[in-house]
TrEMBL record, chains A, B:
<dbReference type="Pfam" id="PF00392">
    <property type="entry name" value="GntR"/>
</dbReference>
<feature type="domain" description="HTH gntR-type">
    <location>
        <begin position="7"/>
        <end position="75"/>
    </location>
</feature>
<protein>
    <submittedName>
        <fullName>GntR family transcriptional regulator</fullName>
    </submittedName>
</protein>
<dbReference type="GO" id="GO:0045892">
    <property type="term" value="P:negative regulation of DNA-templated transcription"/>
</dbReference>
<keyword id="KW-0238">DNA-binding</keyword>
<dbReference type="InterPro" id="IPR000524">
    <property type="entry name" value="Tscrpt_reg_HTH_GntR"/>
</dbReference>
<dbReference type="GO" id="GO:0003700">
    <property type="term" value="F:DNA-binding transcription factor activity"/>
</dbReference>
<dbReference type="InterPro" id="IPR011663">
    <property type="entry name" value="UTRA"/>
</dbReference>
<keyword id="KW-0805">Transcription regulation</keyword>
<dbReference type="Pfam" id="PF07702">
    <property type="entry name" value="UTRA"/>
</dbReference>
<keyword id="KW-0804">Transcription</keyword>
<dbReference type="InterPro" id="IPR050679">
    <property type="entry name" value="Bact_HTH_transcr_reg"/>
</dbReference>
<dbReference type="GO" id="GO:0003677">
    <property type="term" value="F:DNA binding"/>
</dbReference>
<dbReference type="InterPro" id="IPR036390">
    <property type="entry name" value="WH_DNA-bd_sf"/>
</dbReference>
<dbReference type="InterPro" id="IPR036388">
    <property type="entry name" value="WH-like_DNA-bd_sf"/>
</dbReference>
<dbReference type="InterPro" id="IPR028978">
    <property type="entry name" value="Chorismate_lyase_/UTRA_dom_sf"/>
</dbReference>
């Protein structure tokens, strides 16, 4: 039995290389050491070195080898799981002061479309939250969130202008395990345009999201509408590594 | 020394589970067998089983375990590397007949912004391609692509209304290794709106892309502008697995 489990060893190697990139020891365009050299440096067999490289490729940090040495790619600051869940975390991670203006917090019967997304019966109670979100005082997005009652009830007592919903729910013991998102462009309804200080007609970037517990139970469904000039997104992909994005066409 | 390298073994296990999901042996919401059961089924130690699970989590196929059994998630048909590179592949993979109307193929001096993206001098020759892309005969996106001369010269002889540029360049020996993409929403310029049969004012979903060789040399830069009602995209994320998306805010 080796003192380090192989799964820990590959993580240690990947971590070491990530740090080297972050600290400028390895820069975009640099060629990575060969597998043999990495094995020697890390006193490792080929397996963990290969797995570390596969991990870094998946993260878009290095090019795919395909028989040749990998190079360091231009790194992007990718989103964290918490930043997907929480506009507060997302804005803060970009050095921008998050703000909220609550327009509605309500316990109400679920309309059919919301009930379907939460996998509950139409008319069962949900907690709905409608907020304008600000970054450094400027309007960035309009949020409409609907929570299953067992989770949403914690929100009814929160100060939704100043507290992070996500942090509050975590403290109440809720653990979101996975998220599905759909992105589209929609014409701005007048109420959203007014909140976002957009002249009509305008378009919005819409992100519809559902969050789930580990057991696969829906927790909430969200409709986020961003001022299009205040958001951009992107991704790096390397050949041979799966992209998690789906892109549908409607004709 | 074991007869199967661990790296092959984890791939075999991941493949087996993927097939089980595709063929309906495992369905969304089902609980996966325990690590111990998988070890037994595959005559494997824990390492490869864990690595197979990590791979499936990265692909958004199963939930993260965190001490509990993973469940099978609703799978999305994610994009392939070729579908990122080629609208022809992308449309075909959705059962839609791809079409092209070429508006311009030209060898021309690179304007400053294109030269910067291709990392060449301003005024050096590039091959530019401007096409309307159709799906089942309906306008879907407007393409503007600019290739470095050494790659683009192959395009000058192609039938760009009927041939796949990507396939042609592959046959000429070009191997794209990685891609960076940026997504935003822009007001539709009049010429694009007319091609896409949109009434003004309209918005477009813009995807700016750069492709690179293994050595990190830019091959081409692209500006794709989609009719917003003909495209949607999305992603599934599980806690503990890195998301490759970056999301910036501009205030």
């Amino acid at each position: 039995m080796s003192p380090i489990r192989p799964s820990q060893q590959y993580e240690a190697i990947a971590d070491h290389l990530r740090t080297a990139m972050r600290e400028g020891e390895l820069n975009p365009g640099d060629i990575l050491p060969s597998e043999a050299q990495l094995c020697e440096s890390f006193h490792s067999s080929r397996g963990p070195v290969r797995q570390a490289m596969a991990t870094l490729r998946n993260e878009g940090l290095i090019s795919s080898g395909r028989g040749r040495r990998s190079i360091v790619l231009e790194a992007a600051e990718t989103e964290s799981f918490d930043a997907i869940l929480s506009a507060t975390s997302w804005l803060s991670s970009h050095g921008i002061e998050p703000g909220s203006r609550t327009l509605l917090v309500a316990r109400q019967p679920a309309p059919a479309d919301i009930a379907a997304k939460l996998e509950i019966g139409e008319g069962e109670p949900v907690v709905s939250l409608h907020r304008l979100r600000l970054g450094d005082g400027e309007p960035v997005l309009v949020e409409r969130q609907h929570f299953r009652m067992e989770y949403g009830r914690h929100i009814l007592g929160m100060d939704t202008d100043h507290e992070s919903i996500n942090r509050g729910l975590q403290q109440a013991g809720l653990n979101i395990n996975n998220i599905s998102r759909t992105l589209s462009v929609i014409p701005a309804p007048d109420d959203d345009a007014q909140l976002l200080e957009l002249e009509q007609p305008s378009a919005l970037l819409q992100l519809e999201m559902r969050t789930f517990t580990h057991a696969g139970t829906p927790v909430a469904c969200m409709d986020y509408r961003y001022r299009p000039d205040r958001i951009s997104m992107g991704m790096n992909n390397t050949r041979g590594n799966p992209s998690p994005l789906w892109v549908n066409v409607h004709v």
